[in-house]
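Quick start: what a row looks like.
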Amino acid sequence: MKILLPVDGSDCALRAVEHLIVHGNWFRDLPEIHLLHVHAPIPIGRIQAYVGNETLHAYYQEESQAQLSEAQKKLDAAGYIYTTHIHVGQPAEVVGKIASELACDLILMGTHGRSGIAGLVMGSVASRVLHLAACPVLLVK
């Protein structure tokens, strides 16, 4: 089973990682885990005149690694093997695209659990992933 595990460094995302670790016995075999961080793009505009592509790429890598580190520590401590992916783009769209490209069987992700007006006004990455994903999505609150 291939599982896409998007993380953004938040407590909600880490709860999804912990859920996988605690419920790992749900799977007959050890799942193939794909740990994903999607960095929202920085509006380029005038910044490109001052910062080169290599510097911007290094920034994305460094920031993404910082967001992934806690999830990696938890998976390492639990003995899970995983592949790390870092992408730049709109998070929900990238999650759906990567899940399809990797032929994932499941997307496991945290959600902030907003409801009512806050959920309607702000929307959510998790809600958008539910609409875009071609595979099942398990949300952990």
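That is the whole record. The mean pLDDT is 88. DSSP finds six helices and five strands in the chain.
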